[in-house]
Amino acid sequence: MNNTKYVFVTGGVTSSLGKGIIAASLAKLLQQRGFSVTIQKLDPYINIDPGTLNPYEHGECYVTDDGAETDLDLGHYERFLNIPTSQANNVTTGRIYQSVINKERKGEFLGKTVQVIPHITDEIKHRIQILGETGDYDIVITEIGGTVGDIESLPYVESVRQMLWEKGEENAIVIHLTLVPYLAAAGELKTKPTQHSVKMLMQSGVSPDILVCRTEHEISDDIKRKLALFCNVKKEDVIQSIDAETIYDVPNLMLQEGLDEVVLKKFNLSTEKQPELNVWNEFVRKHKNPTSEVEIALIGKYIELQDSYKSITEAFIHAGSSNETKVKVRWVHSESLTPKNAEKKLKGVNGILVAPGFGDRGIEGKIRAVRYARENNIPFFGICLGMQMAVIEFSRNVLNLENASSTEMKKNTQHPVINLMESQENVTEKGGTMRLGAWDCKLEKDSTIYNAYQTENISERHRHRYEFNNDYLEQIENAGMKATGINPKTGLVEVVEIPSHPWFIGVQYHPEYKSTVLKPHPLFVDFIKAALKQSQL
Ligand code: GLN
């Protein structure tokens, strides 16, 4: 018999309360008590996946090993839990409708009228239970995107209602995350928004089992009692979630508040074994007590919304902690970088990271930043588009191929040092058609990158259409930039570096997706180490 327990996390009052962090923190505590746990995110928008979304909309698109383009919350899940997620961990309304409509076209509904209830809700429930049935998990936590009361969330809330009824109260519960705002003028915390949002949930037939209340100030016992009374929960099921210095404090804050314990009690599961948080706490301790500091310039074109680079900035935190170093990020807009001001804007940094991206906006600024790093011996880390810019910069300024470019930016460029992958030539659809997910790569032993990984065979995640053009490999290598990581099956260049430079690496893949608290990514760790060295010169 399948005994998987289901926790649903809904949100009320406002968006951006951090459902993903609460879900990930609860999962961490349960995992460290010995339960196997996974987290899933259901997104109410109609895009099939966030792969076609501009990062300004919802921040970074996170990529899993199996090549799913997903919501950035999955990054938090992996960083906290240190286990990979997959396509099944992120489902959108678009995907739900797409599969129901495909079934309808195949005649699978046998002449029935296809409706939101039961067909859409059945598909939602199926997507939730797949994880429990196939993944061998004790507990599946499902985060419902959006805020209760949104029209587009209704089918999800209805599916939750049905699952609560079908599974029974010992097997499925709802955690409702709300905001308890502080009114400075009145000097009071206010419970009314929470009351209203719980009422809204109840109108859909769902009564929360646990309230997690985001707040800027301590919630008194009196207020907890009031919330409990008006929201139909026990007082011990009102959990305070006070603003934290870092998201990595949240598991401990939830432990102090007893969130994991009330969840386990509701499921009738043992609370005997306490969460084992030694490694986690050591990470947090080092993160909060750095002995040195470096400043890294992050060059990107979406920097107005820092969530666009979430995995990179989190990987800096992991690598910083492991080097006991505070990593300060200097955000530099690639469009604002010109040959004239590059010196001024980049002066004093200990490392430069040129970020991933698409299209030609800001690329000349990125190329300028690469040049500054190369000529001034500043540690350089180029990721995906950043690596491609490094190849273009080298071709233009060292090989003197004046018009070197990528065919993404300039279709008929004289020197297409970066061009479209052969496998992409006949691709016309945009969604889900890039080179995605985990690919193997073999590293050259005598290289900086091998030094960082300490292993020859690696697997990293990709998301791109363009690649290093091997027609230029010999010329480029002869001039001093080496291809030190190659895909063993396709021969695609995955890594370039300049051996004569203290630390200059460009990678076609996205190492940031695989950095976790437990396993800070070796390339980020080594980059920060190099920046630290630079800072001591
Ligand atoms: N636009 C580039 C490509 O498609 C790089 C993509 C990226 O940085 N993720 O190849």
Can you tag this structure with a few keywords?
single chain, 537 residues, seven-stranded parallel beta sheet, 18 helices, 36% helix, globular, binds glutamine
Outline the structure in words:
With 537 residues, this protein is an alpha/beta fold. 36% of the residues lie in helices and 22% in strands. It has a nine-stranded mixed beta sheet, with helices on both faces. Strands 5-2-6-1-7-10-11 form a seven-stranded parallel beta sheet, with helices on both faces. Helix 12 (310-322) links the parallel strand 12 (292-300) and strand 13. It is globular and about 75 Å long. The structure holds glutamine. Residues 356-358, 384-385, 408, 463-466 line the site of glutamine.
Strand content: 15-25%
Helix content: 25-40%
Distance between the termini: 63 Å
- Would you tell me the overall average pLDDT? 96
Bound molecules: glutamine
Question: Count of DSSP E strands?
Answer: 23
Low-confidence stretches: none
The major pleated sheet works out as: 9 strands, mixed
Output the number of helix runs: 18
Q: What Rg is obtained from the alpha carbons, in whole angstroms?
A: 25 Å
Class per helix and strand makeup = alpha/beta
What is the approximate shape?
globular
